[in-house]
Specification:
The structure is a single chain. The protein has 118 residues and is of the alpha+beta class. The chain is 44% helix and 15% strand. The protein has a 3-stranded antiparallel beta sheet, with helices on one face. A hairpin with a 5-residue loop joins strand 2 and strand 3. Helix 2 packs across helix 3.
């Protein structure tokens, strides 16, 4: 009976601390166009454990499905910043930002305004 109790406690604790293999999250990512969309989604998908990444050009919302056992949101955000796009928690370096195409310079108000007209 004592072994059964220990086994039950172990099973419950494993379930409580297990990580989700299909975690869902959304975050805001700066960008302005379909080239940005492709770059952001590609950076996410290349992250081990990310199963789905869809970025909305209009709302700047990135929807993710990922395996928490293989990655976390901080890693995903760092990979997005590495290709030149800012998130709420991680800002792309100037070098990474300057590597994006001129039409993707979301920090430039003129570029942002040009995309609003289209």
């Amino acid at each position: 009976m004592k072994k059964l109790g220990i086994l039950l406690v172990m099973l419950i604790s494993m379930t409580a601390f297990s990580q989700n293999k299909n975690a869902r999250a959304t975050m805001e990512v700066d960008g302005v166009c379909n080239m940005c969309k492709e770059r952001i989604e590609k950076a996410c998908i290349k992250t081990k454990g990310v199963k789905s990444a869809v970025w909305n050009v209009s709302t700047h919302e990135l929807s993710l499905i990922y395996d928490e056992r293989k990655t976390d949101l901080k890693t995903i955000e760092n990979n997005i910043a590495a290709v030149g796009h800012d998130t709420k928690n991680v800002v792309a370096t100037d070098e990474a930002y300057n590597s994006v195409h001129d039409c993707c310079k979301y920090r430039d108000e003129t570029v942002v305004d040009d995309h609003k007209e289209n």
